[in-house]
TrEMBL record:
CDD domains: PTPc-N9, SEC14. Residues 303-574 form the Tyrosine-protein phosphatase domain. One of its GO terms (molecular function) is protein tyrosine phosphatase activity. Residues 1-120 form the CRAL-TRIO domain. It comes from Anopheles aquasalis. This is Protein tyrosine phosphatase non-receptor type 9 b. Residues 246-285 are annotated as: Disordered. Residues 481-565 form the Tyrosine specific protein phosphatases domain. Pfam families: CRAL_TRIO, Y_phosphatase. It comes from the Eukaryota. SMART domains: PTPc, PTPc_motif, SEC14.
Amino acid sequence: KKITLQGVVYQLDVALQSTETQKAGLVFIYDMSTSKYSNFDYDLSQKILTLLKGGYPARLKKVLIVTAPLWFKAPFKILRLFVREKLRERVFTVSIPQLSLHVPRESLPVRLGGTLEVDHSSWLLHCYKSMTNREDEIIATTGQQQQPPGQTCSSSSLADPKAAVVVRGTSPVMGSAGITAISSGVSALDAHHSLTAPANASDLAGIDYGHRTQSPSHNGALVDDHHISVAETGDLVATGVNQHQLTGHHQHTTNTSELWTENPPSSASSGFSDDDSLAGAEGDPKTIEQIVQMVRERGKVGLIREYAEIKARAPDGTFTHAKLKNNLAKNRYTDVLCYDHSRVVLSQEDDDPATDYINANFVDGYKQKNAYISTQGPLPKTSYDFWRMVWEQHCLLIVMTTRVMERSRAKCGQYWEPVEGGVAEYGFYHIRTLSIETNEDYTVVELEIRNTKTDEVRCVSHWQFTSWPDYGVPSSAKAMLNFLQRAREKQAEMVRSLGDLWAGHPRGPPIVVHCSAGIGRTGTFITLDICISRLEDVGTADIKGTVEKIRSQRAYSIQMPDQYVFCHLALIEYALSRSLLQSVDLSEFDDREDESD
């Protein structure tokens, strides 16, 4: 245990010499993919968590526990009671597909779903050189005499080359700038360079951490929320080191123009901050009065012209995966494809890369990363993938803004049974319809999902808005606003019902939103939800900026100009209903010619 902890501290100290790492923080990944109860060392896990909390609290950005087994969850639930709230928000339990939501894929090892080829030897050699140079600097500065051979002065030590570490980095990104992986059995450093580090740990087999401040204090405190266990051949991964270090080139990169904002979606605790918001200082936020004035001045023609400018821009990403031969048939429409950079990646089945694709993208919300999954209406052939996505992302709420058939055309597959007690089966997932509530403008169906592989059962609430035509928009936003509010209330209710099982963002896991193509009404619903949330919070909204941001994550969102206009009028209608406005005269809205350039 002592050697393992020494190896961890040794590598973390070197990683934190990087300015980018200090800015971005560390992400510590605890891989439990092959962990078994028989080789789980509770004491080691506790000591590592204590080390992270006591020695690296400020720069510890996240602890990601990957594929935690069932036997791990009970003690973890107890452990979290003793951890401070602040650290608890940094710990997440995730599946391998969800890792890319927290760490760029280019910073993740291949075996964790990334593209990084880890070079342990180069990283260890870099650690050795770095620590040796730092020792020389300290001696030169303080005038101390060099210590005898075999004793390297450092805040931590690596006494055993088996506690090898590999650092992988990505181009500097906000929230993480690289990854350090520790795995047993990799050697590269001379064993005689032993250092003194914190106390104990046994077979470190799968822990990834992040964030840490100054030199470690080795007294401790439990890290939080998700208790960590040791896998058979587990690895420690700490993000925060740049790419050059990982590949053996040790010049530090200083370019921080492109920052990757860390965001968690899914199945665990989350540390969400205002930095994750769509509604930061950027853009052109306006008060509701200013929005009314702008709408009156520009008129319908002006807003349509503004939308045309947005629509004319080239896409903000690539569609490589959507165009792969095996994936083409999974797209409902050939011209509505899925961005690569924000796509929802399903877990691969039988190690087949062709099984990880679904036409769905993560979209950020107001002060919430990955608040939504914007997707197409499932096809009969993709309904299984749809339910896999819902299951893997721990979704509680599905918002459907189309009917299955409209104008005698199929708009969406019937992926649930429309009768109470009915059961639809898609692979390992059995979907039972528990209840149906039919309202004038929408229908609510409570569903039970059973994973027959694990026999786990979850509940999902399905909200279908039925008063929106395929083209055009409602004459009044009242029905949509009521629907949106009720759906939000349901999401909040379901999150509360999870209790301690959910430690993520207060608004819960991603809400799945779809229509037929997943861009028109879907984009309109998300735009309204974001703008209303911001208006309620800070009294301003930025409809144009919100649409631009959504389109950068889900291509072509807000499909028609009248949907863009509807967002403006609906927000004004919402403000009137909440008495944020007294009265509004838009009698000339349809007739006014836009006078702007």
